[in-house]
Amino acid sequence: MDVRLPLTTAGMCLALLLGACSPDDEKHGPGLEEKTAQFEQSLDAITDPKLKDAVTELGGSLLLLERARRRLDGQPAKTEYGEDALGALRHYPTPQALVDTFIDGLFVLRKDVGSDYLTDLQPVFPFNLNIPGGFLFPHGVQWQSVTLSDKRVIAWQTEWSETDPGIQLSPSSSTPDDLTLSYPFIEGLDIDRKSQPQPVSLLGEIEVIAPGRLHSFDLGKQDIGQTRTDGNLSVTLLKLEKNYAEVEFSNSLPLAPEVGGTPLNPMIVQARDATGQYLKRAGSINESPEQVAFYQEQLAHLQQQKAWSDVLEKQLNDSQSAFERQHPRRYNKVYFHGPVESLEVSVLDFSNVSVTRKPLDLPVRRLDPHTTAKAVQPLDLPVTVYDDQAADWLKGASLTEQQLKDSIRIRQSVEEPSAARIEFDHRKTFNDELLGEDFSPGDSPVTFFTQKRNGERDEPIELPPEAYQVDPLSGTITYDLNLFPETPAFAVGSMPLFLATVERQTFDAKSLPKGLDIRNNMLVVDLKRFAADQWRFFVKDGSGQYLKQILSVSHDAGAEGPAIFGVHYFYGRPTQVETYRRTDLATVQYGFEVKLDKAQVPGTAP
Hints:
By secondary structure, the chain is an alpha+beta fold. It has three domains: 2-74 and 289-326, no CATH class; 95-209 and 356-365; 368-606, no CATH class. It contains ten helices and 29 strands. The protein has helices spanning 14-20, 32-43, 49-73, 87-90, 95-104, 289-303, 310-326, 390-393, 401-406, 430-433, and strands at residues 2-3, 107-111, 118-124, 139-148, 153-155, 168-171, 179-182, 199-219, 227-230, 233-240, 244-251, 267-272, 281-285, 330-336, 342-365, 370-371, 409-413, 420-425, 446-451, 457-460, 468-471, 476-479, 490-508, 516-519, 522-526, 535-540, 549-556, 563-570, 576-595. Strands 2, 3, 4, 5, 6, 7, 8, 12 and 15 form a nine-stranded mixed beta sheet that branches. A hairpin with a 6-residue loop joins strand 17 (409-413) and strand 18 (420-425). Helix 2 (32-43) packs antiparallel against helix 3 (49-73) and helix 3 packs antiparallel against helix 6 (289-303). It starts with a strand and ends in an 11-residue tail after the last strand. The model is unreliable at 1-29 (pLDDT under 50).
């Protein structure tokens, strides 16, 4: 939840605000629903359409900002750890080296969408664009055309046309970053996909803007109120509370002309707790109290007007420009999931930039998760990318019974009395990946109890078997309150959990056991010796760091036949292989006593 107020180019509206409000918002402070209702009523008095739009956008955005602030202020005090937002950049000597890796690691996969008339093309980048903050540098790809196997070139179009009778290349309707190649559909005529021309290469152009430099400031409570400076970059820590920080930064040099009008995220605020781990961000608000007060003044001024005019628009723009001149520093209030011990504030300097533009002519590759092909298809990209999450993920290989029990979180749902639920959930770990499918959960006893006047547990309730159902594999208990002769207050029982015993071994590339083979950037695995449900493989290169896996392919004997061998593709050259094998699978009984949430059963008094 990152909130930045628009002014003259607002994209939020009152309808969005009204649709997003919930009763929980009022728990964080009174008055939001009343303010919303009053604001909506005030709009009825505005007759000028353009003025009404401006008031709706600005007022709705201010209310949405307040709602976001209340939610962030009222979030539960639960520690959650996240990724290092600068992890990818730390592996490369310069920002430009990261840019080159980003571009040179791009390839295109052909995806089967189960239709003879549609084929999806998936651009695959070496870095995850969907994590909070995404790729650090401004970037964009303009697709131009796809070349087919019959030499035809199909131009890119921004949307699919129902009236175009030919083959079309347009954005995918299901996945925003993918492209769809659409073949013409003829009613009553069956088309053999193999007879259709297939995509061979995708053409386009990519542009990435890298900042001239990055500087990080390490801050703590002793820095509150102080301004730290490095050349043209300065950072001021305004406040550091238990789970949030308020920071301002400025760049005394103007932005480079190449980034004019480009949305930028030049400041990255990260926090660590006492363990030294990065805390997960809960969200941020990017408007300072002074900015909010200014927008409120602008709103009040708009609400006093009778009609929109060019003079009014100029007044608003002039006021905005004057405010920005008087307040050149950028503000950020960042919330975290957990107690903040120290801050790392990193500033990207876009006063000097390097712009990389490169034409793209990318072969379309077919690498399905399962194939009957006997030959290994190469996918050797000229980049090295590390997996910064692997080491933490692999801690799950030594998960203990107590750690598994401590990770359980119990949630309840009583909205549907006929299908009330108790869920035993836990954060997924590497151990879950090695559980396989050979579960023997055994008995999962549960008994429901009534409640005494003093709130303590009373007698057990006699129930028919169909009144409740225990699903140990999903960790849920579902019960039908309509079949209960008395209102239950407690559920007592035992839920089975599953814990794998994992054996870890490390092999040098030159002394791999039979059944494992390194070929360039691939690890080829004999699946008859290393069954897929029992084994996992991680690799390192000469630096001692884990390489990021691109994808894996299982080569099977046939549609119903067994898997013969698997191929794991990596960004880089493996020199060491770590094997993880499940040697045992234990059932751990998790005893519980749950105080049940109350539900309104039809036919009973509220």
